[in-house]
Design a protein that fits this description.
By secondary structure, the protein is α+β, with helices and mostly antiparallel strands. Helices cover 39% and strands 18% of the residues. It is built from 9 helices and 12 strands. The strands form 4 sheets. Strands 1-5-6-4-3-2 form a 6-stranded mixed β-sheet. A hairpin with a 2-residue loop joins strand 7 and strand 8. Helix 6 crosses helix 8. The chain is globular and about 65 Å long. The N and C termini lie far apart (43 Å). The model has no long low-confidence stretch (mean pLDDT 95).
Length: 308
């Protein structure tokens, strides 16, 4: 699984002519709904083609090279689809510079009747894919750092899932959020980090994770099947992805039944459920650091659950 990143261009015009021909131009640029971090556009070209563009400040070009690396890692498992990556780039623009990512524009369509079951089986296949070439010779991590939302996400490889989850996931988020905690909270946090092995288990095999797997990052493709977008990829325990699906509303029961049939839980479902909140502590800490104190109570509730 050798990942070669897409071409990176010095301007949007150069990218479009390289991709679609010398005479191409943008006929319409329509702002469309997207995430909180980037601006999203549907570009209609003079050729009639449509392209999806995400844009941000020029200094944030790393958002898009990291996203492209994650999308390519998922694509190369040959398990679940992602939008085709066209290129990344930067542009000085007329007034201010910006960075961009160009992807295939995916027209909305109706979901297949077995949409969730099919997605579950495809996600399970992604979680079973070989990951050896993604982690620099160790079992967990990723070949480059990336982002979880707008925050940097370290992916320094480690031989142990416990070591990786403690050192690259929970500990950095706790440090960034330290000003929210009092001395009693800090003692519990230290106890939790020191005793993660009482709660988490090493996976039977490492899995490529989407890393930010909530409903907003799953879309319906032209064939009526699910596609993954906006990854925060790394190699870890598949349970961390499944836990994230439960955090903000959950997926339909048919998804979980089909996933567990294709990729049975390690131990019992109750064993997994006993670990689920600890995986989601990472995501909630990230939201605390991104969006503020409204996420403090759920963070402290989970800390109390495991280290109270």
């Amino acid at each position: 699984m050798n990942i070669t990143l897409p071409a990176n261009y010095d301007s949007l015009a150069l990218a479009l002519t390289s991709l679609f021909g010398m005479s191409v131009s943008v006929s319409h640029a329509d702002r469309i709904s997207g995430g909180d971090i980037n601006k999203a556009y549907r570009l209609t070209l003079s050729t009639g083609d449509r392209v999806f563009m995400k844009a941000n400040e020029k200094g944030n070009a790393g958002f898009f090279t990291a996203e492209a690396a994650g999308l390519m890692a998922i694509e190369m498992t040959d398990a679940v689809r992602t939008p085709r990556i066209l290129c990344t780039g930067t542009d000085d623009g007329e007034d201010v510079g910006y960075s961009f990512l160009l992807l295939d524009y995916i027209e909305g369509t109706e979901r297949r009747s077995d949409y969730w079951e099919t997605f579950a089986r495809e996600l399970a296949a992604m979680h079973r894919a070989d990951t050896k070439e993604l982690t620099g010779g160790k079992a967990f991590g990723f070949f480059q750092d990336n982002y979880i939302g707008a925050r940097p996400q370290g992916n320094t490889p480690a031989s142990s899932w416990l070591e990786f989850f403690r050192g690259q996931r929970l500990a950095p988020q706790f440090r960034a959020a330290d000003h929210y905690f009092d001395s009693t909270d800090r003692k519990k946090i230290t106890r939790l980090l020191d005793h993660l092995g009482d709660f988490l288990v090493e996976p039977e095999a490492p899995s490529l994770l989407h890393g930010d797997l909530w409903g907003g990052n799953v879309m319906c493709g032209r064939d009526g099947k699910a596609m993954l977008i906006d990854p925060a990829c790394y190699v870890g325990h598949a349970e961390a992805d499944i836990a994230m699906t439960d955090l903000f509303g959950g997926f339909p029961r048919t998804f979980y039944d089909a996933y567990r049939e294709a990729n049975p839980p390690q131990g019992s479902i109750a064993d997994y459920e006993g670990r689920r909140d600890l995986y989601n502590l990472y995501q909630l800490l990230n939201h605390l650091n991104l969006f503020g104190s409204s996420y403090l109570h759920p963070v402290l509730s989970i800390v109390e659950e495991y280290a109270g």
